[in-house]
Design a protein that fits this description.
Layout: H1 11-24, H2 54-58, E1 73-76, E2 83-86, H3 95-108, E3 110-113, H4 117-121, H5 124-132, E4 152-157, E5 189-196, E6 204-208, H6 209-214, H7 218-224, E7 228-232, H8 234-241, E8 255-259, E9 261-263, E10 270-272, E11 279-282, H9 287-303, E12 308-311, E13 318-322, E14 326-330, E15 341-346, E16 354-355
Parallel strand pairs: 2-3
Antiparallel strand pairs: 1-2, 3-13, 4-15, 5-13, 5-15, 6-12, 6-14, 7-8, 7-11, 9-10, 9-16
The structure holds fe (ii) ion.
Fe (ii) ion (FE2) binds near residues 177, 179 and 328.
InterPro entries: AtsK-like, TauD-like_sf, TauD/TfdA-like
Pfam family, one: TauD
Keywords: Dioxygenase, Iron, Metal-binding, Oxidoreductase
Length: about 375
């Protein structure tokens, strides 16, 4: 195999080159059709759309957990966050069952389904059909996607290349975030799975932002409810423009203002909604005030192990989380193994974040 490191804008052609070399060595990658492709397409700004949460429909079902009736084992990862399910084939869920799934993910934050080879092997068109049940599919402005499938967001790292957002000048690879929170309507129910994984390492950390919020005193929560913050996609775009992660920006980055505490539209639960990767400042506060509060919140999220769960990726695992009430971080501890980690994300957008406090106005201030 080639040993060069790929980080620049020549990545698309070099990915193909590496695959051709691998094939010539008799090593045909099973998911070659789902390798990252970096088209030079340009996308217009995302427009608003009407979102209706499928979890709402499940509230009227006689048994909103009927989709789990055939499960052979159900394990709560922690009391407040995460449930692991065995014996349910996601590929066979009916529309009603998918609605129930959305509600259950909203309630538990995170669901982990094992033994989902049927789902994973159905391929890209099925992934799109699956995700479209839950909302309009987000097309990422910078990440690689399978050729012809821009709705599928890919993460990818192997011995020769990395197409992840990886910061090298930090003492940790942990970077807590809620996916693309800079969008006006950030994602809700999100599906993610690995097509290839290292033999050990590469787990994913999750935290419940409902739980992290509950740790605060009532007066502090009352104060946070009055705040709104700027979320920015600029730094992510600049990372790509600097030649990393495929080196392409297909949609100009945006900044949007979201409430610091949002309310889930189905469960009504309040969740902390700031993250170190994309939140930049609290609107209306002086810089030192904003920095101090945000850094306190980021630090709280990072060190609250009693709000977190960790997913270990056994082959054919499919994970779903509600991006509105959780945050997560990759763990890049497998780099020296040179093994491939190749993941696909299906990312339906949801509602514009709803302030926990009805009196908070989002449109009366500039970014
Ligand atoms: Fe993420």
């Amino acid at each position: 195999m080639a040993t060069e490191t790929i980080t620049g804008s020549e990545t698309a052609s070099q990915t193909l080159l590496l695959e051709q070399k691998a094939r010539s060595n008799g090593d045909v990658y099973r998911y070659a059709a789902l390798l990252p492709h970096f088209s030079n397409d340009r996308y217009p700004p995302l427009g608003p759309f009407q979102f209706s949460d499928p979890g709402h429909r499940a509230l009227s079902h006689s048994n909103p957990r009927a989709f789990l009736d055939n499960a052979s084992n159900i394990i709560h990862l922690t009391p407040a966050l995460g449930t692991e399910v065995h014996g349910v084939n996601l590929a066979n869920l009916s529309g009603d069952h998918k609605d129930q799934l959305a509600l259950e993910v909203a309630r538990r934050g995170l669901l982990v389904f094992r033994d989902q080879s049927d789902f994973i092997d159905k391929g890209g068109d099925f992934y799109k059909q699956w995700g479209s049940h839950f909302g309009r599919l987000h097309i990422h402005p910078t990440s690689g996607h399978p050729d012809g499938l821009p709705e599928i967001h890919l993460v990818y790292k192997d011995a020769n290349s990395t197409f992840n957002f990886e910061v090298n000048d930090s003492v940790t690879t942990t970077l807590w975030h809620s996916d693309v929170s800079y969008e006006l309507q950030p994602p809700g129910l999100t599906t993610f799975f690995l097509l290839s994984q290292p033999s050990t390492g590469g787990d994913t950390l999750f935290t419940s932002q409902v739980s992290t919020l509950k740790k605060f005193s009532p007066p502090f929560v009352t104060f946070l409810r009055t705040l709104k913050a700027v979320h920015s996609g600029v730094e992510q775009a600049e990372f790509s423009r600097s030649g990393k992660r495929g080196g392409i920006v297909r949609r100009e980055p945006v900044e949007n203002i979201h409430p610091v505490i949002r309310r889930h539209p189905v469960t009504g639960e309040e969740a902390l909604y700031v993250n170190k990767q994309f939140t930049r400042r609290i609107v209306g506060l002086k810089k030192e005030e904003s920095d101090t509060i945000l850094n306190f919140l980021y630090d709280h999220v990072a060190k609250s192990g009693d709000c977190q769960a960790r997913v270990h990726w056994t082959p054919n695992t499919v994970v779903l989380w509600d991006n509105r009430v959780t945050a997560h971080s990759a763990i890049i501890d497998y780099g020296e193994s040179k093994e491939r980690r190749h993941g696909a994300r299906i990312t339906p957008q949801a509602e514009r974040p709803i302030p926990a406090w009805d009196g908070l106005k989002l449109d009366d201030s500039k970014v």
